[in-house]
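Kindly go through the following sequence and its backbone structure tokens. Advise at your convenience whether the structure tokens fit the sequence:

___
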Amino acid sequence: MITRTAGHNGLRLATVVLPIVTILLFGVLGGLSQLIDWISGIALGCVETAILVFISRVIERRKSSSSGAPFYIASGVIIGIYAVSVILEVVMLGYLFSLPVSSYALIHLITILGFALVLGLIAGAGKYAGTISQKENDQLAVKRETVDWISSIRKRIHLLQDEDLKSLDRQMGELEETLRYSDPISHTSLYEIEQIIRQKISLLEDQVTLIGELQTGQRSEQIEQTAHIIKDTLRTVQDRNTTLLKAKTGST
């Protein structure tokens, strides 16, 4: 852990120090007065910064979800193209063809602005995709939690070991399967229905708790009420699934 932290700190330090060293090196080798050398050093320093920042982000990304991997790959490709372009500009335009300083500086400025624009678009797309992915993961987690909730209520029914509760268990099983195979990716228009379903499941849990507190011969009325709640909850889930399908196909 200490070694990893030291490595990260070293990379951050290199991100600051290496570009500065490169800029000063080009400036000094050019006799301090040649603007083309300073411009070349700055351009290459920007390339080094982009590469080192990208490496740092990739290392940090290993700790989290890989859902943004395509965008990191795209960013790596763009940085590679940018690096090659700058090196060619420095060698060909700065030293072989010796462009005027103003033209040379303008070309590098256009290159870095174009690079920043494309990289910004990729970063924005990656952030948006990450937000959508996180939202979907959250909804999947809610679905698993709801299914597990129903499963735990069924287990409590089993523990009561009452023959009269077998019909409830079958109905709860149907509700559990319906929820298990429902589309977990919901729609904003169904927020209230989702909350109603959870409220009804909570009511079911209370009913099963109440049944457990009664003697075997005193449970018939509560069993009947619970069966009604299960059917009502199942109907609400089915209506939710139908409405969700229409919302996603644009039928509503």
